[in-house]
Predict the 3D structure of the following.
Amino acid sequence: MLAVKVRCNGKDVTLALDTGAAVTVLQVPPRDLGVKLPDTSTGSVSGFFGKRDVKSAEMSLSVGGLEPQKLSAVFLEGDQKVDFIRDGALGRDFLMRYNFLIDFPAKKLYLRPRTNMKRDK
């Protein structure tokens, strides 16, 4: 699995790149990122770690020198930590905002902002 260094609400975290994840999942304590979560679960997610209850919050995420992106990330509840995904998983909700290339042998993720393409008629 490819590890990606991400700025999350101004803090450095390492997320596993998960192109199969629809959403970005964090397992960093929310208070470490300056986030206040709702008191009750906002839903659940299913993945390679099974089905887990989650709470969501709007976050600011950036990779490299790219402009931060606002998105609603989900936090695994309680002690449901998944050992092999470090601080969480970077999902398609973030990736689809970019044109991207994954170089697995070099362990690199290349991102380029998407532009709105207009067709001439």
Observations:
- The longest strand covers residues 50-62.
- The mean pLDDT is 85.
- The chain has one domain: 3-113.
- Residues 24 and 91 are 4 Å apart (CA to CA).
